[in-house]
Amino acid sequence: MASLLITANSLITSPADGPTRVLSPGYVRVEDGVIAEVGEGRPAGPPDVDLPTGVLAPGLVDLQVNGFFGYDMVDADEAGWHTVVSRLPETGVTSFLPTFITAPVRTQAEALRRARDLLPGLPAGTRVLGVHLEGPFLSEKRKGAHNAAHLTDPTPEAVAALLETGLVKLVTLAPERNGALDAVRTLTEAGVLVSVGHSDASAERVAAAADAGARMVTHIFNAQSGVHHREPGVAAQALVDPRLSPGLILDLHHVAPLVAELVFRAAGGRVVLVTDAASSAGMPPGTYELGGEPITMPEQGPPLRADGTLAGSGLRLDEAIGNAVRIGVGLADAVDAATRVPADLIGRPDLGRIAPGAAADLVWLGPDHRARTTWVGGQNVFEGGS
């Protein structure tokens, strides 16, 4: 029986019978890739691993990763998928949804089939939980970096074509498009998480989408109607509707620090930290691709299209946790937003928590909140040193 005992100066636990909290000190016992015991204080017997500083957190769960390390997930070859899966643990991410942005439905369906065929041969590393389709059912008025020529309505035929592989776990759409509410119902019945995004909808229309089954809002405040005091839109509904979890790109460029603080204060316990990382993430400044079109990674700030439109980010999810703490969010709440909340939202309560019965996906975050060691299923997949 493969076992592992880790002691930590601090660890963040999410017990089934109570809120997420910090144990200082604490320990985790792993048996065959699953957490068998979580305790406060020191265990009997010597540990296999002792973490004297920082915090032991659940492995991070990122629901929006367009690319990383030079590869755009939608058209990455086998080597690209291998690179991303094997290197994402460097950022503390142990589970993710590769994200395919707007393209013709036929092109997206082909990309899904290609991904399906690649998955069985991937190396040990970050878990692929499925695919996030961000488009093509988006608003032309709020297209952001998406190609307007490929935006379309979510017809039953289009939705069926994209569900064929069974890989799709999250779809971002604009609920004001023709047929969108029916599509929300169809997707929800198929077990797909629906997120409102790239939308010019009114708050009322977003509420109708939530009535139909939508449960998330993609990168709040970016590419969506906002919080006008007489014409509330997507962002306003996301903040007040307890059914909706707002995704937040906390690189301090996409959303200003004060507004990010507002999101956590208004939607505490519902916020989902995401990177929206593009292929330029983890790479030096230069020209890369997002959805088959060029983006430029500058010396400072997120990648851009030629017209200056923000095009994903260069953010690491462990950095997002650090940024949350720096704007005043408690450490347990910041970690929760990158672990338990997204895992529960995607229907994976076995992930994103340190609790008995959960998968032993863990990350040691140093005092700077960057990943130092990462385990997936109890196996060490990244060792960055102390």
Write up what this structure looks like:
- The protein has 386 residues and is of the alpha/beta class.
- The chain folds into 2 domains: 3-57 and 352-383, Urease, subunit C, domain 1; 60-345, TIM Barrel (Alpha-Beta Barrel), CATH 3.20.20.
- The protein has helices spanning 78-87, 105-118, 156-163, 180-189, 203-212, 234-240, 257-266, 317-326, 331-336, 340-345; strands at 3-8, 11-13, 21-23, 26-31, 34-40, 49-51, 55-58, 60-65, 67-68, 71-72, 93-101, 127-128, 131-134, 168-173, 193-196, 216-217, 245-249, 272-274, 286-290, 293-297, 362-365, 371-376, 379-383.
- A hairpin with a 2-residue loop joins strand 9 (67-68) and strand 10.
- Helix 2 (105-118) runs parallel beside helix 3 and helix 5 (203-212) packs across helix 6 (234-240).
- The longest helix has 14 residues, at 105-118.
- This is N-acetylglucosamine-6-phosphate deacetylase.
- Residues 56-380 form the Amidohydrolase-related domain.
- Belongs to the metallo-dependent hydrolases superfamily. NagA family.
- One of its GO terms (molecular function) is N-acetylglucosamine-6-phosphate deacetylase activity.
